[in-house]
Each structure stands twice: as C-alpha cells, then as structure tokens.
Amino acid sequence: MNKMNFLVKNLMSKNVMSIKGDATLDIALKSLNTNSIHRLPVVDESGSITGIITDRDLRLAVDSPFLPETNDERIEKLKHHTVSSIMRPNPITIEDSAPIVDAVKLMRVSNIGGLPVVDNKGRLCGIVTRSDLLDLLIRILEPVPPQN
C-alpha cells in the first residue's frame, strides 16, 4: 500500500449506519445490536451530523444497580425517550480527504474508538474505527505475499 492510499476515504466504512435525533432509544439499541456496532452517528434531514450515540451511552441510560428491573422493563422505558435526549452533540469528526495519521492522532488524543467521516459539505459519508486502524496495521506489518 503506497502512502497516497493512506487517506481516510480509503479506509473508512462507507455503509455507515446512522439515526435521526427524534428516533427512540429502543430503536437505537436495536440498530446497534442488529448490526453489531458500537456507535451511531446522529444526522439531520440533510445528512449533516448533529451528534453521536454509543452503546455505552445506552447502557448508562438504563443500567442502575439500584433499580430491580427486568430487561423488558428497561427496553420499555427506552421507548419513551429520544436519541437527542442522550446523544453527545457536535461530535469530533474528520473529513474523508484527511490523512489516516490525522484520524489516528485525533482518536488517540480524544480517547475515542471511532470517528464519523464527513465530506467537504459536512455530510456523513463514513466512519473510521479503532478496528479499521488495527486491520490496516496488520496489513502493513504482515503483507500478503504476491500470488504467482
């Protein structure tokens, strides 16, 4: 892989799941679980990112060792609250044309596991995660031998 390919747009996942702020928290939880992901960018009608919600945010919203509730009761409560009520507004993002090293530095300094990727108009176009970066590191350190 040459250095010219070390751009966020060449590493990011393009089929990124997102959610609207007016969706209920049970829908967010279902989306995270169904797609085996840890974070959902929150977008407005134009596709611009307005926030982010993570599996940790949802756990904190429902888990309390002091409340003797069943999982069904917790899920029922999630139906009465929207994503915008617990999302983190104005998340850290990176442009798709940025070098991957910038994404790595930003994730390290901010101590986050994923970065929503935006185009030059600020619309969500992908996501780059810690797993994507580790996969790249494996490809660099353990290249596949050329096929004859």
TrEMBL record:
Signal peptide: none annotated. Gene3D superfamilies: CBS-domain. Residues 12-69, 87-144 form the CBS domain. It comes from Polysphondylium violaceum. Pfam families: CBS. PROSITE patterns: CBS. This is CBS domain-containing protein. Keywords: CBS domain, Repeat. It comes from the Eukaryota. The keyword DNA repair does not apply.
